[in-house]
Amino acid sequence: MKQFAVCLSVIVLVGGGSLHAQKPAAPRESNMLSQVQLTTESQYPSVRIKEYTLITDNVDAQRADAEAIMQVKMEVPRAMQTKDPAQFDRVLARDFVFRAEDQFHNRADYIRDRTSGEDRVKTADYQNLVLQFFGEVAMLTYRNIVEDEPGGPSAWKAEMVWSEMFVKEDGRWKVSALHCIKLNMLNDPAPAAQ
């Protein structure tokens, strides 16, 4: 059975000197965190994201960044459709990593793998998107159902659960890590001819 995983996520650790030299953080004065349901529009009919949840203490201050991240999120499956390395280059951070159960790619390997492989995303339907900011880093978790372009015996359809990290790089939000947490093949494509 051919298994394909397009998975994103990142763990970002930021240090500021010796652990012993750091002072405990002062209690943060802010409003309580809450969940806010926001809507968005995809310019690509085959990439379907309609709404997402933002966990925030200030929706007005984070709305523009949240929408910018949603637009970047829509560009990733679009890049897989076009197989255009320049499109990946625009949305992946310099230190991007991809991780799935049996796969690990750095940025260059991921772009090469996604632009030279046979798989071509037909549709990507997103559900249960949850976004939260941590300064200049953001975490997005979601579930999606991705369908491969039909036409051959190896076409597939899969449900995947992801964790994705975004960083601000040169003033723009970019994907810094993409981790596939779970992959469930919804069909059993025929193995490719040997």
Characterization of the model:
- This protein is of the alpha/beta class and 194 residues long.
- It has a single domain, classed as Nuclear Transport Factor 2, Chain: A (Roll).
- 21% of the residues lie in helices and 42% in strands.
- The chain is built from 3 helices and 10 strands.
- It has helices spanning 59-82, 85-91, 107-116; strands at residues 8-9, 34-39, 47-48, 51-56, 92-100, 103-106, 121-134, 137-148, 157-169, 172-185.
- Strands 1, 2, 3, 4, 5, 6, 7, 8, 9 and 10 form a 10-stranded mixed sheet that branches.
- A hairpin with a 2-residue loop joins strand 5 (92-100) and strand 6.
- Helix 1 runs antiparallel to helix 2 (85-91).
- The longest helix is centred in the middle third of the chain and has 24 residues, at 59-82.
- The radius of gyration is 18 Å and the shape is globular.
- The model is unreliable at 1-27 (pLDDT under 50).
Describe this structure in a few short sentences.
The chain has three helices and ten strands. It is globular and about 55 Å long.
Number of strands: 10
Structural class: alpha/beta
Give the helix proportion (percent range).
Answer: 10-25%
- The portion of residues forming beta strands comes to 35-45%
**Sheet with most strands:** 10 strands, mixed
Tally the structural domains. Answer: 1
What is the third-level CATH name, the topology? Nuclear Transport Factor 2, Chain: A
Name of the CATH first level: Alpha Beta
One letter per element, helices H and strands E, the order comes to: EEEEHHEEHEEEE
| General shape | globular
> Kindly, what is the distance between the CA atoms of the first and last residues, rounded to a whole number of angstroms?
13 Å
State mean pLDDT (0 to 100 scale): 84
Gross CATH architecture: Roll
Evaluate the radius of gyration.
18 Å
* Count of DSSP H/I helices: 3
Low-confidence stretches: 1-27
